[in-house]
Amino acid sequence: MQKNILELKNISYSYHTLQGETPALKNISFDVKEGEFVAIVGPSGCGKSTLLSIIADLIQPESGTIAFNNPDGSLHYPKVGYMLQHDHLFEWRTVYKNVILGLEINHQLTKEKLDYVDQLLIDYDLDRFRNSRPSELSGGMKQRAALIRTLAMGPELLLLDEPFSALDYQTRLMVSADICKLIRKTGKTVILITHDLAEAVSLADRIIVLSKRPATVKETVPIHLTLPDDSPLAARHAPEFQDYFSYLWEVLTDENH
Amino acid sequence: MKITKRELSMQENYIKMHRRHHHLITFWRLMIFIGFLFLWEISADMGWIDSFFFSSPSRVVQCFLSLCADRSIFLHIGITLWETVFSFLLVFLISLAVSTILWYSNRLSEILEPYLVILNSLPKSALAPLFIVWLGTGTTTIIVAGISVAIFGSIISFYTGFKQVDPEKITLIYTLGGRKKDAFTKVILPGSIPTMISTTKVNIGLALVGVIIGEFLAARRGLGYLIIYGSQVFQLNMVITSIIILCIIAFGFYKGIQCIEHRMRAALKM
Questions:
Q1: Domain-embedded: residue B49
Q2: Fewer CB atoms near the end CB (10 Å): N or C, chain A?
Q3: Number of structural domains found in chain B
């Protein structure tokens, strides 16, 4: 039995303006197991990104608790890697200087970490471009560079905030397949935010459906696909794919659910 | 025997048109310059304008040579150059420091905003007499005058540039475990270099304006002093010669900054 790496209990959050209070999250509770790939879907503007920001400790919830179970049993924060919607690679740095940005900020430019980065660059086929500028990379390569930048710090939990939505459809299918295969290989725990149901079904072990604002957990759907291999493109041809898709669509659009 | 005439390819044709365009631009720029000098000289010689008031290119050259002969002109040019460069460097450093502090503290920048706007729109030449009373006549007053003209606009431009950096890029730094200091050194500062360079281009000109105003009122040396002195003794040749030297200095500064800009862009590949 895998243990929970993350437990959220009754998380609530509201945005405040002079015009009034906008509740974004209401009593959100769920667990994430170690090594699990969880997708969170919900209508746009329902507060999905707010939820990730809370998990990443960028903002504090107004109420509720987040508990992390670290391998050593301590309660201190596990390393969270947060991949944003856009790659935000800096044009004034080379690709290599971009991917070591996190290490540079945290004063972790040790031989061990830099060797790991070198290995990732080779594995992700970016080694040839280490001295190039980000603008010379394709959309997919930029996302991979952004992933290396996140992985370089050795996070135990990866948060992906619609990391493929800035790409065109064809690139997106290729890149999401590509990136997710790479992430699965590392065995990291992943929380993926998306509004693309097909993407969620094809990638995740479990899907958490959020309601519209203020977001609550509508339903949690475990995904079991019969797969010839592990690629997300193959997942779209699995016999159960269409049923999951229709079911999720129903849950998502059902007002009274 | 048949002569095969080689057709120009579209690319060669394009390059040819491009060169021609540039030659034409350079030609007309020179023509305006030469034509102006020619017309000026002719009008003065023919008596269409009074050369006592309007001088003429030949008289300017003569005046310049005579000023060169006793070497005084080099002192005047040197002083003005030195004062301008010094004020400009101080403007750059002070506005970098102040805009950094303003960026760090939203509250402070909000409090100070109206003051900056007022000080920026105030005609700084109005302050020059005060500087003389406070600081005496001398280099300090002139440098303070040079700084006062450029500083407020420069702070506002730097600060606006800092604020225009994509907030998501700052979020990225936080997601990587960085703090506000990291956001500043890794994103804000390198991301604002283009804004800082364009502000700098304006500032060097403004510093020159301030220095000349200062020299009008509180100097015994410098091109500003030469202009005022020349007008007082009705040596208008001297005044116009100084103004032409100022034109050349302003152009030189602009080119210098442009050169630095190209180098930085090449180094940072922006």
A1: no
A2: N
A3: 2
Q: What is the bridge-based pairing of β-strands A206-210 and A189-193?
A: unpaired
Residues B16, B22, B23, B29: what is their CA dihedral angle, to the nearest 10 degrees?
Answer: 170
Q: Domain range holding B117?
A: 58-268
Same domain, B125 and B237: yes
Count of A-B CB contacts under 8 Å: 47
* B64 shares a domain with B15: no
pLDDT at position A79 is 77
**Residue A2 binned pLDDT confidence (cut-offs 50, 70, 90):** low
Q: In the CATH hierarchy, which fold is given to the domain comprising A4-253?
A: Rossmann fold (3.40.50)
Largest CA distance in chain A: 56
Peptide bond into A214 cis (omega under 30): yes
Q: What is the DSSP string of B152-183?
A: HHHHHHHHHHHHTS-HHHHHHHHHTT--HHHI
Look up the CATH number of the domain holding residue B130.
Answer: 1.10.3720.10
Q: To the nearest 10°, report the CA torsion of B136, B138, B144, B146.
A: 140
The domain limits of chain A are: 4-253
Percent of chain B with pLDDT over 70: 96
Cβ within 8 Å, pair A105-B177: yes
Q: How many other CB atoms are found less than 10 A from the CB of residue A119?
A: 12
* Out of A85, A91, A105, closest to residue B176 by CB: A105
Residues 6 or more apart in contact with residue B111 via CB below 8 angstroms: none
Distance between CA atoms of A210 and A173, rounded to whole angstroms? 24
Domain shared by B109 and B36, yes or no: no
Q: How many CB atoms lie within 10 A of CB B240?
A: 20
Examine residue B1 and state whether it is found in any structural domain, yes or no.
Answer: no
Confidence of residue B141 (pLDDT cuts 50, 70, 90): very high
Q: In this structure, what token pair is assigned to residue A103?
A: 């290490």
Q: What is the pLDDT of residues B230-248, one digit of tens each?
A: 999 998 999 999 999 999 9
* B210 occurs within a structural domain: yes
Residues of A numbered 34-93 whose beta carbons fall under 8 angstroms of chain B's beta carbons: which are they? 56, 58, 81-82, 84-86, 88, 90-92
Q: What is the pLDDT of residue B269?
A: 64
| Residue A58 CA from chain centroid, whole number | 15
The answer on B23 and B148 residing in a single domain is no
> Phi and psi (nearest 5°) for B71?
65, 5
**B232 inside domain:** yes
Asked whether the beta carbons of residue B174 and residue A58 sit closer than 8 angstroms, the reply is: yes
List, for residues A150-177, the tens digit of each pLDDT value.
Answer: 888 888 888 988 877 777 777 777 777 7
Together in a domain, B19 and B101: no
ipTM for the assembly: 0.84
Whether B20 and B148 map to the same domain: the answer is: no
pTM of the model: 0.83
For A10-23, what is the mean pLDDT? 88
- Chain-chain contact of B176 with A91 (C-beta, under 8 angstroms): no
